[in-house]
Structures are given as C-alpha cells and as structure tokens.
UniProtKB/TrEMBL annotation:
One of its GO terms (molecular function) is 3'-5' DNA helicase activity. Residues 767-783 have a biased composition (Polar residues). It comes from the Eukaryota. It is found in: Nucleus. This is ATP-dependent DNA helicase. It catalyses: ATP + H2O = ADP + phosphate + H(+); Couples ATP hydrolysis with the unwinding of duplex DNA by translocating in the 3'-5' direction. GO terms for cellular component: chromosome; cytoplasm; nucleus. Keywords: ATP-binding, DNA-binding, Helicase, Hydrolase, Isomerase, Nucleotide-binding, Nucleus. Residues 542-622 form the HRDC domain. Residues 766-790 are annotated as: Disordered. The keyword Nucleus applies. Its main location: nucleus. Belongs to the helicase family. RecQ subfamily.
Length: 886
C-alpha cells in the first residue's frame, strides 16, 4: 500500500484513517467514511485498485469533478476514465467493462442505467470496490439531496461480494443512518474523522453589498493574487456574480465566471481556465459547489450568507486542500436571512423542507456569532470542541466584551411581553418605539418597554438577539418557513434575577457588526487584506528561494500547457516550495521529497533538476540541503500498474520479479526453484510480457542483455542485408560471435513495439552510450566507476540495480559492478546495489554507518552513491536516518 502511495501519488505516509479504510476494503468490508473536506478520502478508493489490479468504480455527482480527478490521476500514471453525458470517447464504456481502468468514475444516472451485462463483464474482469462519493446526496437530510442517489442500492444485487464504500465530508448522525440504510451497507466499518481543517482561517463580516464594498473587495482580492494561489468568490445570485466579475476584470484581475445560466461549454471553459491557472479568480454561484478539486485555492470568499452550514463547510472546504494556510471569508448582509422561502421552494418533501430551514438557520447563526467560528462549526457536526481555535476572526480580533445585561433584559422582556409568537423584528420595532399597524393592533405600543431601545439601531438589536440565541437565552422555533423567537428556560432564569432587583451582570463578546454600528469599526474589509496571518514559520522561505519557487511555478505552468493539463496535476505548490528550499540536485534527492511520484520522476525529473541546479548556481545557493533531506520522508518501491490480465503466471511472475523487484535474470531464474530455469527462458518470458503491454525499463534490460547501441546498429544492418527477420539463425550468422540470440530477440521486440527510436535513438541512447563508449573503469578503480554512476541519467541508473554495469560490448554478467575492489573481493565485502538491497531487506532499517561498516572493503562515497541510486529508483527510502526497503 505504501509503495503504491509513493509511486503513484508521491506521498510517503498515509494520513489518519486512510490505511485503516483501505485495509478494510481489501478485506471486502463495506465502509462508511465521514471525513473532513480535503482530508484525503479519495486515496481510500484510489489505492485498492492499484494494489489488487482490479477496477474501482466511483459514483460521483458532478461531471466537472470527475473530469478533474481523471486528469489528475492520469498525471499520476493511474489509468482512469469517466462515464457520463459529456464523455465523447465512445470506446470508454467498452474498455471499462473489460477492466481496462484502475479507477472508473460515473454519474449516479449512468450507474443505474448501465445494462447488467456491463456489470457482469466488469465483475468478470475484476472490480475491487464501488465507492459512492459525496454520499450525503442520498439523504433528504443532506444538503444536496439527489434522487438518483436513492437508486444506487440497485447495484448491490448486481455486484455481489463487492465492497461498497460511502464517503462524505458532511453527514450528521441522521444523514449517516440514511446513507447506510439506503445503500444497504452490511456491517459497515464506520469512520468518522474530525471535521476540523486546521489550516483554514475563518472570518465573517457584515457588509452592505454596495459598489463601494465590491471595489474594496476587489482591492483585497488583487492583493491576495500577488501573493499567489487562486481565489473563489461564491455569490448567491447570478446578478451579483456578474457584478463582482465585472469589477475584477475592470481592475485588471484575470478572472472567470461560472453560473447556471451559462451554457455547458462556457462553464467547462471557465472551469478549465481556472484549474489550469490561466485565471486567478473564479466568481461563481453555488453551481460551482462541490465541483472543484484544485488543491491550491488560497482564499474562498462567500459574498452572501450560504444556504446552509453544510454547504458553507463544503464550499469553504475547497480552500487549502493541499494543507497550506488559507483563508475563508464570509460577507453577509441581514437581508440574506430573508431567503428561507426561496431555498425551501426546492424542497421535495416536508422533511426536506424542515431540513433546509434548520441548516439555513445554522448558517445564520454562524454569521452572527461573536465567539469562535471553528468551535461552532465543529459542534454543529457533532464534534466536542471546548477550546477556542485562535485561528478565526472572532478569536484573533481584539476582544470586546461588555456587560450587556441591561440591553439583554430589555430585549428578553420585550420578547416575553409580545408573547413569543414573532420573529425578532417585531419586538425590536416595539423597543424602538414603532407604531406600525401590527404593533398598534396588538396593543404593543402600550407596553412600558415601548420606545426604550432607541439608543441602538435595529441591526444592533438583531445582533444582540443573535448572541442571546447563541448563548441559549432565546430559542427559535420553526413552523414551516416561519420562525418565532421566544425566551428559553435559561432566559427566564436570567430575567428572574432582574425581577428580584439583583440583576446579574451578563458579559458578552460584541459581534463585529455591533462594534461597527456603535461607530468603532473600520472599513468593511479588513485592513490587513484577506490574509490576516501571513505565512507560518515553517512556510517562510528566503527571498532567493522565493525567486527559485517563482521560476519553478513557470516551469510547471509551461509543462502543463505543453501537455494540456493543470499545473497542480504535475505536482503541488508545497512540493515546488520544497524544491526551492532544499534544491535537490540528483534524482535520488528529488524522489525523496514528498509529493514526488514515479511518473513525475520519469517525465519531469531531469527538467526540474536542471532548473534547480542552474538557479542555485546563479544565486550562489548550495544544493542538497542535507538537513532537509533527512527531514523529508521518502519513497517506496514502484508497483506495476498496467498489467495485462491475460499474461500467463510464469511469464508474469518473471516479469514482475525483474521489473518490479529489480532482480537480475539470473536471480529470477533461481527464484524459489529447486531446478532453476534457463536465463534465456527468463528473457523470452519478460519479452513476451513486454509485447503484452507490460511496462519495461528497456535501458536496464538492454544493459543486462548486453545490447549496446553499436550492436543494435549491427543487427539492423544484418536484417536490412537479409531483407527478413523471420528466422533468427540467418541473422545470427551474419553477426559477430559476441552477438547473442537474446540480443537479437530483444532488438526485435523493441522494433516490434515501435520503440527503437526511443531506446536506441535520442534519450536512452545517451544512457546506453555513455556507458558503452566510455573506457571501462570498473575493475581496478571502483571509485571512478562510482563517479560515473552518480552522474548517470535516471535511465542509466535504473540499469544498475542488480549491481551490473555494461562496459563496452561486454555482457553485463562479466562485469559485476564493484566499487573499489577486484571482482573477486565483491562477494566478501564489496558493495553492489544488489548486495546493499539484500542487506537493507534483511533488516528493519539500517543506517548509512551500518551499511558502510558492512561493506568494509568499499569506499564510503561509493556506498553513498549506490544508496542514492536505490533511493532514486524507489527501491529504498530513508526514515529517521535509516534506510528501509520499499
Ligand atoms: N497521505 C497523503 N499525504 C499527503 N497528501 C495527501 C494524502 N492523501 C491525500 N492528500 C492530498 O490531500 C488533498 C485532498 O485530498 P482529497 O481530494 O482526497 O480530499 P477529500 O477528502 O476527498 O475532500 P473533499 O471531501 O473536499 O472532496 C489532495 O491534494 C491530496 O493529494
């Protein structure tokens, strides 16, 4: 599992619960996973197919989300596709049912409409799980109820024995129950993680939504953009979306717009330009809700109170998914709270309507809070959080607590005197001395309290009402869409102290709105801009490092444009920051950095190393900061993914030992056999696997077979001369004696796969040639060979994992790689990569000193180089200063 995690995703360790969930799924157990937004739920269904080589089917509600995930997975070397209305490739479905994909996404509509034949075929090919992402959509109590989700249980009968995994970030106890029942989960393993997103700062402000406010907001967003990272601004109406977008464009900020009245194509284009960093800001309605998986969104702004606290959590959860500090701001205006009818209009049942009302009220409460926002959010989701977070607007702004007992007694008494049948507005109007019809008709203008609250504006009283609700002195009752406020038992207790004349003091924290209304507030947007905290200590990098980081951002952007993907799909911002900070100069050092996967190493490794070393030189900075390398956890051994499922056992096994375990032909031939098979049989097995589509390290293969660039040219010439390559013997007879059948077979296999140019042409030729054309310095002066090894390209290095080097035209087996000793001494004390691997494998963590001591006949630098090579090739990794086997 760890190997797949590092190889495909570049991560060196699982986050909380991931391992446990994957383990359960592999055991065939149903799971119900409730974990925070951005906590890494996807890995839970993405790793099992890579381990089992069977397809994982993922039901997901949004096409845009699926498309992003497919794009990202492809960049990680994971075979992935989606089925849904926007899929234009008609062959995908056919390939999918043959099990061609590791991860197959589909909409719920698609999942329930596919013929049963599709499912039986896929099951025959191999299916390791069915994941239902955003599973809260199943429940009417969830904030995004989707009727099609209710039909997913139909798949249960079609997929006998397949574990179902339901995943969501937002599910109260009631929603969890609905999910388990609706999907008929069987004895599910339930994981409920913390909802906390510690890297997110939560801020709330009241605003008036004037053009002046929008302009101020634009200024703040613009400041934020210069710091880097993307911003999403969620608006509650299409008109506001357009207004804010226009203001951003007028200010010269690259931004996109996204709302439900735009056509599919325009929306897709908008989405695409945002994920590819062509624009920095996305202004959207909640139509953009769950559909964004971009890890480097640094700021999410809600311009208006969201329709529910669940959707707020979900939408603000798009922020800082890579774990870096990020900010979430919510700007509300009191008129937002009048929208309950509008939201309830979409109710599909009475229960649904009640659920909509309840969660809308929770969102309001969140807006009006004077205490810790995070605590409130977490408590809403049932998490017992007693301490304030210190990382939200209310925790960080200067405390403004005051004895509000007098005002509170007034408001509570007025609400009580009005009979507790109204909302907050009427009693407040009474306090402020209004004589509107409703007040006069009910004789409330005769109350002694009438007109006693003129010192404060209505919104101040409303804010106080919000505080008293939050502190449980008032209670709110919902009747359909109408809400009434009455005094709670706690409130009566408080009032009774006033009646007795010994009125208790009531110290409450004033909300930002109250302070502003009292005339002490500053501008509506924060003076510090949107980011009140700045980078944390560990986040800080020097000015020079920042320069490198910015160049690397451009390199990544260019690469992404060239291959038509999103920059984040290549690697994350944090990974680039670590490159800038630690400046790895070798593939091994690069591979050691978190977030670097095998696909990255093989496709972009050398480009980044080139840039990093060049920039470090220009800026006079050292490379390979050793303390950093120690501190960054590292890498597991690669797992092969594209396994043809038709390949016979012996062939597959030989290929797996050679390619995955990096065994030599000889070692494969002897592996667990009383009577070893012939090496030439091993070679032909592996070549068959390659023809069958298995991934191959051709550079290493050629080295081991002894097929050099020169020999390849000779073979090509011989074939041209003969005009045929049907029979091997005539070709062999045309060639010098040292050219073996195995070399010819290898050459023909490479030709047959159309890889000649790649293997013998540009890039790999360098790798092979550099080894073949240089004088063999191996036998007498190993340290020089060591130096060659260090400088070799990744392709060349991979060829050395069994300890062999090709020198000249000599077959590899004759030139066992040594490092300072003669061939004869190698077995005793000389280090080879193979021997080091064996040593590491046999122990649970071995330090560099131990390895050096063990190979006491070898030079320390050579051992270090070999270990570096092994790290770069994802065969060993370093943890707490010890080398471990992947
Ligand atoms: N073990 C890990 N180590 C480091 N990063 C990880 C790990 N697992 C996941 N991540 C990263 O965390 C981020 C969020 O992961 P993911 O998209 O799976 O979140 P999620 O739980 O599905 O969130 P949401 O509910 O919001 O969709 C991604 O950028 C992912 O690459």
């Amino acid at each position: 599992m760890e190997a797949a995690l590092k190889t495909y995703f570049g991560f060196s360790g699982f986050r909380s619960y991931q391992r446990e969930i994957i383990q359960k799924v592999l055991e065939g157990r149903d799971c119900l996973v409730v974990m925070a937004t951005g906590s890494g739920k996807s890995i839970c269904y993405q790793i099992p197919p890579l381990v089992t080589k069977k397809t994982a089917v993922v039901v997901s509600p949004l096409l845009s989300l699926m498309q992003d995930q497919v794009m990202s997975l492809k960049q990680h070397g994971v075979k992935s596709e989606y089925l849904g209305s926007t899929q234009t490739d008609i062959s995908v479905s056919g390939q999918a049912e043959k099990g061609a994909f590791d991860v197959l996404y589909m909409t719920p509509e698609k999942a329930v409409s596919l013929p049963s034949r599709f499912w039986s075929n896929l099951q025959a090919a191999g299916i390791c799980l069915l994941a239902v992402d955003e599973a809260h959509c199943i429940s009417e109590w969830g904030h995004d109820f989707r009727t099609e989700y209710k039909q997913l249980h139909m798949l249960r009968d079609l997929l006998v024995g397949v574990p179902f995994v339901a995943l969501t970030a937002t599910a109260t106890q009631r929603v969890r129950g609905d999910i388990a029942t609706s999907l008929t989960l069987r004895n599910p393993h339930i994981v409920v993680g913390s909802f906390d997103r510690p890297n997110l700062f939560y801020g709330v402000k009241s605003c008036n939504r004037s053009m002046a406010f929008i302009n101020e907001l634009v200024k703040d967003v613009s400041k934020n953009c210069t710091v880097g990272g993307s911003t999403i601004i969620y608006c509650t109406t299409i008109r506001e979306t357009e207004q804010v977008h226009e203001a951003l464009v007028a200010a010269g900020i690259k931004s996109s717009i996204y709302h439900g009245r735009m056509g599919n194509k325009a929306r897709e284009e908008s989405h695409r330009s945002f994920v590819r960093d062509e624009v920095l800001v996305m202004v959207a309605t909640i139509a953009f809700g769950m559909g964004i998986d971009k890890p480097d969104v640094r700021c999410v702004i809600h311009y208006g109170c969201p329709k529910s606290l669940e959707s707020y959590y979900q939408e603000s959860g798009r922020c800082g998914r890579d774990g870096l500090p990020s900010v979430c701001w919510l700007y509300y205006q009191r008129s937002d709270f009048m929208k309950s009818d509008f939201y309830c209009a979409e109710a599909k049942s009475q229960t649904h309507r009640k659920a909509i009302m309840e969660s809308f009220m929770a969102a309001q409460k969140y807006c009006l809070l004077a205490t810790c926002h995070r605590k409130f959010l977490l408590q809403y989701f049932g998490e017992d959080r007693t301490t304030d977070c210190g990382n939200c607007e209310n925790c960080t702004r200067t405390k403004n607590e005051r004895d509000l007992s007098k005002e509170s007694f007034l408001l509570l008494s007025c609400i009580k005197s009005c009979g507790g049948r109204w909302g907050l507005n009427l009693p407040i109007d009474v306090l402020r001395g209004s004589r509107v019809k409703k007040i006069v008709e009910n004789n409330f203008d005769k109350l002694p309290l009438h007109g006693r609250g003129k010192d404060y504006p209505p919104n101040w009283w409303k804010a106080l009402g919000g505080l008293l609700l939050a502190h449980d002195y008032l209670k709110e009752t919902v009747h359909d869409t109408f809400r009434s406020i009455s005094v709670s038992p706690n409130g009566y207790k408080l009032l009774s102290t006033a009646d007795k004349g010994d009125g208790a003091s009531l110290f409450l924290q004033l909300t930002a709105e109250m302070i502003e209304l009292e005339g002490h507030g500053g501008s509506q947007c924060k003076e510090e801009g949107l980011n009140p905290l700045g980078p944390s200590e560990s986040e800080k990098i020097s000015e020079d490092e920042l320069k490198i980081y910015q160049v690397l951002l451009n390199v990544r952007m260019q690469l992404a444009q060239d291959i038509g993907t999103a920059p984040y799909a290549i690697c994350g911002d944090q990974t680039l920051r670590n490159f800038a900070k630690f400046r790895p100069s070798t593939i091994a050092r690069l591979a050691n950095i978190d977030g670097v996967n095998q696909h990255f190493i093989s496709h972009y490794g050398s480009i980044f190393i080139q840039n990093i070393t060049q920039l470090a030189k220009e800026l006079n900075l050292p490379v390979d900061d050793l303390s950093a390398v120690e501190s960054i956890p590292a890498a597991p051994k690669p797992t092969q993914n594209n396994l043809p499922r038709s390949l016979g056992g012996a062939k597959f096994c030989s290929w797996e030992l050679w390619q995955k375990m990096k065994f030599s032909f000889q070692k494969v031939a002897h592996y667990r056999r009383a009577v070893p098979i012939k090496e030439k049989t091993v070679i032909s097995y592996i070549l068959d696997a390659a023809r069958d589509g298995c991934e191959m390290d051709w550079s290493r293969f050629c080295e081991e077979v002894g097929l050099t660039h020169e020999i390849a040219s000779q073979i090509r010439l011989a074939i041209t001369k003969l005009g045929s390559h049907e029979k091997l013997k005539p070709i062999k007879d045309e060639l010098p004696e040292n050219v073996t059948y195995e070399m010819i077979q290898t050459f023909l296999a490479i030709e047959g796969l159309g890889l000649s140019d790649q293997v013998f042409g540009t890039v790999p030729t360098d790798g092979i040639q550099s080894k073949t054309s240089e004088a063999p310095k191996t036998t007498s002066n190993g340290s020089e060979v060591g130096a060659d090894v260090c400088d070799a390209s990744p392709l060349t290095k991979r060829g050395q994992t069994d300890g062999s080097l090709i020198c000249g035209d000599e077959p590899a087996s004759k030139l066992q790689k040594i490092d300072g000793q003669g061939v004869n001494s190698t077995a005793a004390t000389g280090a080879t990569e193979d021997a080091i691997l064996e040593l590491v494998e046999g122990r649970n963590g071995v330090s560099l000193e131990d390895v050096v001591k063990h190979f006491n006949g070898s030079k320390r630098e050579c051992v270090v180089e070999m270990l570096d090579n092994l790290e770069g090739n994802f065969l060993v990794y370093k943890k707490n200063g010890c080398y471990m086997i992947m």
